[in-house]
Q: What sequence folds into this?
């Protein structure tokens, strides 16, 4: 039986066509994967049947009937639900309270129909008992029957409105039917990521959906949690539900789906049976050309310890520990991966290193690669150079130790310009309590691609040029800024990273997620950093964009940067990284060699922890 049919669907945003003349149908009781690059229109199309967008042209049919879905409430009316990548839950509410949010009296009557029927059946029974007690002049029986009638009338009234116990009972029944594990009274803030996702799915099933759309459902789950989710999805299929999964993970597409729908540049390319295709064929359909799916891992060369993190402890606002006594070393010439369930301290770790978050205890010592290099005036004033010379930092071109304590500033400047002042060893810098500006002024080129692209990385209301200037405007003299270099950088990023944009004057917020990420990564690597940190740089990106980011990370590694890569796809972490530290509950469970450990082992470390600390890098 046909569940959904799209006929000539077109959806535009300004001059950009997200979907163009899309026509295809999906059958009931199957699991579909929706594949496509960023900007292919897959999420826009799903948002149309979820009631978030309205098509500019075309028709949508549900179970053979043409429908007009103008809101998520309309979608629920046609038994369609969507679980978004970013959960829509209230942290201080329980699971049951979140599920009941937004329901009307009509909804309660519909969803609590079984409860109402049970109450009416009991009331009828106790009315008969009451009549029999009156006939027998049984005063105790009359009293008991009246009490039970009052009790079930209250029960019936509750079925028509907000009723926590009744809803909790229904949630438990739904959970047991499909294989979920959920506590209806648990607060959301006490839930793991997988439990929150379970709650979102149960919320849709509570509303009686027959068609469920899941947007990147495995993005932040461990391998064990993914297996549990897939078991639930298969149970939903057995119950006759239609499941649509938006995902970029081809191995999971091959494992869970019956058929795959492929979109490219807003157009429908085709639907193929999963059993009759493979990952390479699907990639070629998505991209429109042949692609090599192998992630390269160049052998580390000229590896040197660059940044020492020792006993780092970071507190949350409520005084609980986000990071607990964390120690490790970041090395130049390699990629150090960070694996962990979302909320295990990844965000706090990167922000502490970047100087954005204060830490309670610990040390961060940076080894600036200055050995046998001439000093510059860019990060050292003549007076600083004079002081450092008395501490034995420098020698001249002949290798003789320099003491510049009696030199005048003018003489020191001349020697610097002639490259006559040379570092003996790498410069050792303590980063404790340093702000990002202070770190920059110390000559440390540290680049950071944060998890929050538009909140912390870029300014959505500004164009590409202005976002490039965020790193350089302080170099201007007086009140004037130089826009030529930022504009040239923006154009260079557009060309080299294949950013799809009308031009450099386009607001960043109007770009797709993948193109926003390319702009952010391009800006951060343009400074040739010594330490490059990236948090989930390929989250939500398509295959083509993801592999471009992997290539950029490898280029930084080969160029001698120390790369810290926080990821959520264990297959990618294991293929790309030279070492992986596993965070669990704010502690390092272990540091592993991805070539010598299984994905399942890392998954267990993520969920259950392990050693309290890790060695200094081995």
A:
């Amino acid at each position: 039986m046909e569940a959904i049919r799209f006929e000539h669907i077109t959806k535009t945003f300004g001059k950009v066509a997200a979907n163009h003349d899309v026509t295809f149908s999906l059958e009931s009781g199957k699991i579909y994967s929706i594949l496509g690059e960023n900007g292919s229109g897959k999420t826009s199309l799903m948002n149309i049947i979820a009631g978030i967008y309205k098509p500019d042209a075309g028709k949508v049919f549900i179970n053979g009937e043409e429908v007009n879905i103008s809101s998520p409430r309309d979608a629920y009316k046609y038994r369609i639900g969507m679980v978004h990548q970013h959960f829509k839950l209230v942290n201080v509410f329980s699971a049951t309270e979140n599920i009941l949010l937004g329901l009307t009296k009509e909804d309660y009557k519909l969803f609590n129909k079984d409860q109402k029927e049970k109450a009416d059946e009991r009331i009828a029974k106790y009315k008969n008992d009451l009549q029999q007690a009156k006939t027998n002049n049984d005063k105790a029986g009359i009293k008991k029957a009246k009490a039970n009638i009052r009790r079930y009338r209250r029960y019936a009234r509750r079925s028509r409105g907000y009723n926590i116990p009744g809803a909790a009972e229904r949630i438990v029944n739904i959970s047991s039917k499909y294989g979920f594990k959920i506590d209806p009274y648990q607060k959301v803030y006490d839930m793991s990521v997988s439990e929150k996702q379970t709650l979102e799915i149960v919320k849709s099933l509570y509303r009686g959906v027959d068609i469920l759309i899941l947007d990147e459902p495995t993005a932040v789950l461990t391998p064990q949690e993914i297996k549990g989710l897939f078991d639930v999805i298969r149970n939903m299929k057995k119950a006759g539900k239609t499941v649509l999964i938006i995902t970029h993970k081809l191995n999971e597409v091959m494992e869970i789906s019956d058929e795959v729908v492929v979109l490219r540049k807003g157009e429908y390319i085709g639907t193929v049976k999963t059993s009759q295709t493979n990952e390479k064929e699907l990639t070629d359909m998505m991209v429109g050309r042949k692609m090599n799916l192998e992630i390269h891992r160049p052998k580390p060369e000229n590896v040197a310890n660059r940044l020492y993190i020792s006993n780092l402890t970071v507190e949350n606002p409520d005084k609980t520990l986000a990071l607990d006594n964390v120690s490790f070393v970041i090395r130049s010439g390699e990629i150090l991966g960070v694996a962990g369930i979302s909320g295990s301290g990844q965000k706090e770790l990167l922000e502490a290193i970047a100087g954005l978050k204060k830490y309670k205890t610990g040390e961060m010592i940076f080894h600036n690669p200055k050995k046998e290099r001439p000093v510059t005036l860019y990060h050292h004033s003549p007076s600083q150079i004079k002081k450092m010379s008395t501490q034995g930092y420098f020698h001249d071109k002949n290798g003789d130790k320099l003491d510049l304590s009696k030199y005048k500033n003018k003489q020191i400047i001349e020697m610097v310009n002639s490259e006559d002042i040379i570092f003996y060893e790498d410069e050792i810098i303590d980063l404790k309590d340093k702000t990002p500006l202070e770190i920059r002024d110390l000559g440390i080129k540290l680049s950071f691609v944060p998890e929050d692209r538009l909140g912390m990385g870029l300014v959505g209301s500004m164009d590409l040029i202005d976002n490039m200037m965020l790193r350089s405007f302080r170099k201007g003299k007086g009140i004037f800024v130089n826009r030529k270099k930022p504009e040239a950088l923006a154009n260079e990023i557009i060309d080299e990273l294949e950013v799809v944009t009308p031009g450099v004057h386009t607001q960043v917020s109007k770009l797709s997620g993948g193109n926003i990420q390319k702009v952010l990564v391009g800006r951060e690597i343009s400074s040739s950093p010594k330490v490059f940190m990236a948090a989930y740089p390929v989250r939500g990106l398509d295959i083509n964009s993801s592999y471009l980011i992997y290539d950029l990370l490898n280029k930084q590694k080969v160029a001698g940067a120390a790369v810290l890569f926080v990821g959520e796809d264990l297959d990618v972490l294991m293929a790309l990284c030279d070492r992986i530290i596993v965070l669990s509950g704010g502690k390092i469970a272990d540091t592993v060699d991805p070539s010598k450990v299984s994905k399942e082992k890392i998954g267990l470390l993520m969920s259950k922890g392990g050693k309290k600390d890790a060695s200094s890098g081995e």
Q: What stands out?
A: The radius of gyration is 30 Å. Confidence is low (pLDDT under 50) at residues 610-618. Residues 113-135 form the longest helix (23 residues). Residues 20 and 235 are 34 Å apart (CA to CA).
